UniProtKB/TrEMBL annotation, chain B:
Keyword Zinc: no
One family name in Pfam for this protein: Proton_antipo_M
Gene Ontology molecular function terms on file: NADH dehydrogenase (ubiquinone) activity; NADH dehydrogenase activity; ubiquinone binding
Protein name: NADH-quinone oxidoreductase subunit M
Subcellular compartments: Endomembrane system; Membrane
Membrane topology: Multi-pass membrane protein
Residue intervals passing through the bilayer: 6-24, 36-54, 74-101, 142-160, 166-186, 198-220, 240-260, 272-293, 305-326, 333-354, 360-383, 395-419, 439-459, 487-503
Annotated InterPro entries: NADH_Q_OxRdtase_chainM/4 (IPR010227), NADH_UbQ_OxRdtase (IPR003918), ND/Mrp_TM (IPR001750)
Upper lineage: Bacteria, Bacillati, Actinomycetota, Actinomycetes, Micromonosporales
Gene Ontology biological-process annotations: ATP synthesis coupled electron transport; electron transport coupled proton transport
Keywords from the UniProt entry: Membrane, Transmembrane, Transmembrane helix
Length: 652, 538
């Protein structure tokens, strides 16, 4: 069934062409198939797989990682670094041709390595973390399903394949958030995530419809080649719809509310899905669609604004939260805001956003798993007000978490410095006054990030112990959990520098994201921005250290307007409830009433009229006429009468 | 093999089976079930042979056969199948054996019914209207139930295979009889009311159609042959009236908003198996009829009324989905989801593009599989609990994990998740509609959000959350799916996944028939508005 496309001839500039996958790369479908089959085995075999199922799950992702590395090196040696593999005709109706096909190019390759690499470490960690959960096999089934869907999302060669993976990721996320489905809060959080995602999905779907209606195709190469011929308004609408999809999946404004609630799932889920991979899908979508977004400056301005606004929202709310996972969740919202800022700026900043995404994948997974390790040793306590002084009791968790903390706030030479600071600099390189606006927002965000992450770190690991009575001796986690932590910590330290070294990742991504256009001149010099960003980081971190080094109250204290608002997610949940939920419930209730009384009554009345008086109908309905025969006979008589009438020529 | 009279044999075979089953002694109910099941498998086998014999890309109508019936009026037993009818016939052949297997104990004596414990005074809830009274009169007979299912299969096959307008009308009306008895004699609470309502609605629609059939015969040169009639040129004014006569019958049957109110009652009262056939197949006669009769025979009227039909479709999508969210009875909820799905099918038909039309027909098949599965699995849940009220469940996933998993899968198929077959059809309908009517397509796309809402909320209230303590007191809820039930759901799940990844074998059969229908109404797909890519490759 695998048919390999013929090599495309050389095309003039401006067109996008992909070569056919040959040799080893012809088996790139295995990347999706292996975790998918593993998921099916785990979910279908049931209890029979309980004893070894988790190792199958780990092995499947490990195998995918090894394969991904192999493909990566294969791709490096190719001239045309974009190869596609058409597996079968997915949909072929009229002029609509959708390929069930994969595209392996530099962008897809780095995502594959992130998903399978970080994913493998998180799988390994989860073997121990979920060891005492009766549903561990099911958990790994869902985990593998997620990896398969995410890989399909980044490997598809057209927008329908992307949508396929996109919704698959949404499903896996729902299953994992509501994994402990007997908890009403978990079930509700899963449903909320799926629904908010579907709002974005609807946008993405309509975007796909526009592509077909205007360009007659959904294949990446044909869409990107044809985008130049679209009118500006079409590009704008198309881009806004794609952006809506991206905000849903990535937890960006206005669809950010589901992400913090998603922390109801087991902690490895938060690490894999809500930090390292799934939430980056929106960034992937925009980076992948860079020919569309680069074609309209208004569109780019909207993306930049969403990014800047969300990164500040995330910081402000993150600073007010006391639940360790929710602080990290809002920090994820905020960091992805930086990535949106990057892809919105366009040009060379596309690559910067991807680099930040990869770096973030390491340090955020590191910190989420670290949080899990803390919870593991503290009877599943999540309130940072009830931690403190843990550095003495969990040395490995403390040290690894510290690398993540220093990385995210951007202390050189850890990875966040190399990935976040260039985005701030790029924001200052805009040509008009908006450079000050977005650059300032990014800079302010860096300071706030330093503040709330330091607050989290200090309250958890330093200062006096404020534990609940039931905890005597917090313990370090077992090796199977600390080894992934150590490896991720190494990534948090080194990844940024390695990726930035010699413009390695940026030039690797050039075939997809285009050449960087010359040397840009910002409103501030680059060295000035570097100094400023380190300065605000140190100020933010120092302030938090000063405020929280002696611990804090064990319960939330009355606070001013801003902090209260931040604790309530800036009232976005209240807004959703008042504007969508309550009226929605009222509407459905009203309609149920209306349908039973109004529409049914009206049609009943009509039917009664036709049937010859409501009295007769009532008798039929109340069962006096038990036999259907009268009705049939009436019908038959009518038929005969009608025919006689026709025969007699009354109607002719 | 292509000379074999597939369609007439397929139509008659279940009827013969029904006769055999009903003649079996009432004292041996198991034998009746086995014979009925075996017979339906034979019909399935014959249908598979027919599917294989079908020449994709061959004539529009194949397997044509004709025998005189009432020569004076030009009435013939004419059978022929196009791609649309073929896929529907396959759907029937697949669903009926599974429904028979799923209904194995539905007609048994009430002694074994799991409602007994629920009727204990300890249950402090009142007997709400939605409580499914599975207890039935002692008069009902097991062989008759299964014979009725086979009679129903006969009439369903006949209505799709008929190529004579009068024959179609006869099957259209006769089809009501077995379903009436299935609901009225074997249904749950309010079955009499529901059965009569179903019957009256359909009968009223049928009478309008009868008038139109006669009118068509008069203006069409005194013939009932579809192919002859499709060549006749009818004045637009006459077309309009004839169109409306047919359309009203089909809109009630389908059902489209605002003619839908009989379905929740019928679907709620019917036994789960009959409900699966009612919504999965029987209602498709409405949408099939529009495609086969309203469009090709009255093309001008169809084009004139298309905006109204699109409006009804899109209202139905949103309206019924909102109502589904608000339901507190499982079977009524599934019925409302189906009304929303019929809205999608209606939109797909009246968008008049190849993608939307093919999507609509594929939707008819996929919806039959997905909602069929949903009705059957909901039926399994209700049979265990002895109640269809959603509030009587809660946390059931702890007790019956496999059943809960299948329910969830059926829900996913119902909300058209990629990877399940309904995604393909919904996508085709929407993308095809978008090329000609953006507002309708955009509003319809919002339906996918509502679909997620009603499915997930239903799943949450039944299988997730805190375990309802009342559930543990019910014996039935301690038994997960047994082998028979697994055999019922497995083929549907496999088909839904296979067609979700590789729908081509079915779309290739449907597509030529839809394109022929588009030619009948003289419509072609709009070219891409920019189309550089297309032109470059041409």
């Amino acid at each position: 069934m695998v048919e390999i496309l013929a090599n495309a001839p050389a095309e003039p500039a401006g067109t996008v062409t992909y070569a056919a996958a040959a040799g080893l790369l012809g088996s790139v479908w295995l990347l999706v198939a292996i975790p998918l089959v593993s998921a099916a085995v785990l979910l279908l075999l049931g209890r029979r797989a309980d004893r070894w199922g988790h190792w199958l799950g780990v092995g499947a992702v490990g195998a995918a990682f090894v394969l991904g590395l192999t493909y990566f090196f294969q791709l490096r040696d190719l001239e045309n670094k974009s190869v596609e593999l058409s597996l079968w005709d997915f949909i072929a109706v009229g002029d609509l041709r959708v390929d069930f096909g994969l595209l392996f190019d530099p962008l897809a390759a780095v995502f594959v390595l992130l998903i399978t690499g970080v994913g493998f470490l998180i799988h390994l960690y989860a073997v121990e973390y979920m060891a005492h959960d009766a549903g561990r096999r099911r958990f790994f089934g869902y985990f593998n399903l997620f990896v398969a869907a995410m890989l399909l999302l980044v490997l598809g060669n057209n927008y329908v394949m992307l949508y396929f993976g996109w919704e698959g990721v949404g499903l896996a996320s729902y299953l994992l958030i509501s994994f402990w489905y007997e908890r009403p809060s978990a079930a509700t959080a899963g449903k909320k995530a799926f629904l908010m995602n579907r709002v974005g999905d609807a946008g993405l779907a309509i975007g796909i419809f526009i592509m077909f209606a205007t360009l007659g195709t959904t294949q990446y190469d044909e869409v990107f080649t044809g985008v130049g011929s679209l009118t500006a308004s079409t590009v704008l609408v198309l881009g806004l719809l794609l952006l809506l999809g991206a905000t849903g999946k990535s937890g960006q404004f206005p669809l950010q509310a589901w992400l913090p609630d998603a922390m109801e799932g087991p902690t490895p889920v938060s690490a894999l899905i809500h930090a390292a991979t799934m939430v980056t899908a929106g960034v992937y979508l925009i980076a992948r669609s860079n020919p569309i977004f680069s074609a309209n400056s208004t569109l780019q301005l909207v993306v930049v604004s969403v990014g800047a606004l969300t990164l500040l929202i995330g910081c402000v709310i993150g600073a007010a939260k006391d639940d360790i996972k929710r602080v990290l969740a809002w920090s994820t919202v905020s960091q992805i805001g930086y990535m949106f800022l990057g892809v919105g700026l366009g040009g060379g900043a596309y690559a910067l956003a991807i680099i930040h995404l990869l770096a973030h994948g390491f340090f955020k997974a590191n910190m989420f798993l670290g949080a899990g390790s803390v919870m593991h040793g503290m009877n599943d306590q999540v309130d940072i007000r009830r931690f403190g002084g843990l550095s003495k009791h969990m040395k490995i968790t403390w040290l690894t978490f510290a690398t993540g903390w220093l990385a995210i706030i951007g202390i050189p030479p850890l990875s966040g410095y190399f990935s976040k600071e260039p985005i701030i600099a790029a924001a200052f390189e805009r040509e008009d006054w908006t450079a000050w606006l977005f650059g300032g927002a990014a800079l302010l965000g860096a300071g706030l990030t330093a503040f709330y992450m330091t607050r989290l770190f200090v309250l958890t690991f330093h200062g006096p112990a404020r534990w609940t009575e039931d905890i005597a001796h917090p313990h370090e986690s077992p090796k199977l959990m600390t080894i992934p932590l150590i490896l991720l910590a190494a990534g948090s330290v080194l990844a940024g520098g390695l990726m930035a070294w010699n413009d390695g990742v940026a030039s690797w991504l050039t075939p997809v994201l285009g050449e960087q256009s010359g040397e840009a001149h910002g409103v501030l010099s680059h060295s000035m921005i570097t100094v400023l960003s380190i300065l605000v980081t140190v100020v933010g971190a120092g302030l938090a250290w000063f405020l929280f080094r002696a611990g804090t109250a064990t319960a939330p204290q009355p606070a001013g307007v801003l902090v209260t608002a931040a604790r309530r997610n800036l009232y976005t949940d209240a807004f959703n409830e008042a504007v969508f939920e309550k009226p929605g419930i009222f509407l459905t209730r009203a309609l149920v009433y209306l349908d039973n009384r109004g529409v049914d009554g009206l049609v009943n009345g009509l039917a009664a009229g036709v049937g010859g008086g409501s009295g007769r109908l009532r008798r039929l309905q109340t069962g006096f006429v038990r036999s259907y025969a009268t009705s049939i006979l009436t019908g038959a008589l009518l038929v005969v009468a009608a025919f006689l009438a026709v025969e007699a020529g009354w109607l002719a | 093999m292509s000379d074999f009279p597939f369609l007439s044999v397929l139509t008659v075979a279940p009827l013969v089976g029904a006769l055999v089953v009903v003649l079996l002694p009432r004292t041996r109910p198991e034998l009746a079930k086995q014979v009925a099941f075996g017979w339906s498998l034979l019909v399935l086998a014959l249908s598979v042979v027919m599917w294989v014999t079908w020449q994709t890309g061959g004539d529009r109508f194949q397997f044509r056969e004709s025998y005189p019936w009432i020569p004076n009026w030009g009435v013939n037993f004419t059978f022929a199948a196009d791609g649309i009818a073929l896929v529907m016939l396959m759907l029937i052949a697949v669903l009926v054996p599974l429904v028979i297997l799923a209904s194995w104990h539905d007609a048994d004596k009430p002694s074994g019914a799991p409602t007994a414990t629920d009727r204990q005074p300890g249950a402090n809830r009142q007997e709400g209207p939605a409580r499914a009274g599975i207890l039935a009169s002692s008069r009902r007979s097991v062989p008759v139930y299964f014979a009725l299912l086979l009679v129903l299969e006969c009439t369903m096959i006949g209505v799709f295979a008929a190529a004579d307008v009068f024959l179609f009308y006869v099957f259209f009306e006769v089809m009501l009889v077995p379903m009436y008895f299935l609901i009225g004699s074997y249904g749950g609470h309010q079955r009499q009311y529901a059965a009569v309502k179903f019957f009256l609605y359909s009968l009223v629609g049928g009478l309008f159609m009868l008038a139109a059939v006669i009118g068509l015969w008069v203006v069409g040169g005194k013939t009932f042959d579809w192919q002859a009639l499709s060549q006749v040129d009818i004045s637009t004014g006459t077309e309009r009236w004839l169109f409306l006569g047919f359309f009203l019958a089909f809109a009630i049957k389908a059902p489209f908003f605002p003619f839908h109110t009989w379905l929740p009652d019928a679907g709620g009262a019917a036994p789960a198996g009959a409900a699966a056939l009612l919504v999965g197949v029987l209602d498709k006669v409405g949408t099939f009829g529009i495609l086969r009769y309203c469009l090709p025979l009255f093309p001008d009227a169809a084009k004139q009324f298309a905006p109204w039909a699109l409006a009804l479709g899109v209202i139905g999508i949103v309206y019924a989905a909102l109502l589904a969210v608000g339901q507190n009875d499982l079977k009524r909820l599934v019925s409302y989801t189906s009304i929303a799905h019929f809205g999608f099918i209606g939109v797909g038909i009246f968008a008049f593009t190849t993608q939307a039309g093919t999507g609509a027909v594929l939707y008819m098949v996929n919806h039959g599989l997905a909602t069929g599965l949903l009705f059957l699995v909901v039926g399994m849940l209700i049979a265990r609990r002895g109640s269809a009220l959603i509030s009587d469940f809660g946390g059931a996933g702890k007790l019956v994990p496999v059943l809960a998993g299948v329910l969830f899968f059926a829900g996913l198929a119902s909300l058209a998740l990629p990877g399940t077959a309904p995604f393909i059809s919904e996508f085709l309908v929407l993308i095809g509609t978008f090329t000609v009517n953006k507002p309708v397509a955009v509003i319809a796309t919002l339906g996918i959000i509502l679909a997620a809402a009603y499915v997930l909320w239903m799943v949450q209230r039944t299988t997730q959350g805190t375990l309802n303590p009342a559930l543990t007191e019910v014996d039935g809820m301690r038994r997960d799916l047994n082998l028979r039930e697994k055999v019922v759901v497995a083929p549907l799940i496999v088909l839904l996944v296979l067609l979700g990844f590789y729908p081509k074998p079915v779309t290739d059969v449907i597509n030529p028939a839809v394109q022929a229908t588009m030619q009948d109404i003289d419509r072609t797909d709009p070219a891409p508005s920019v189309g550089t890519v297309q032109e470059a490759s041409r």
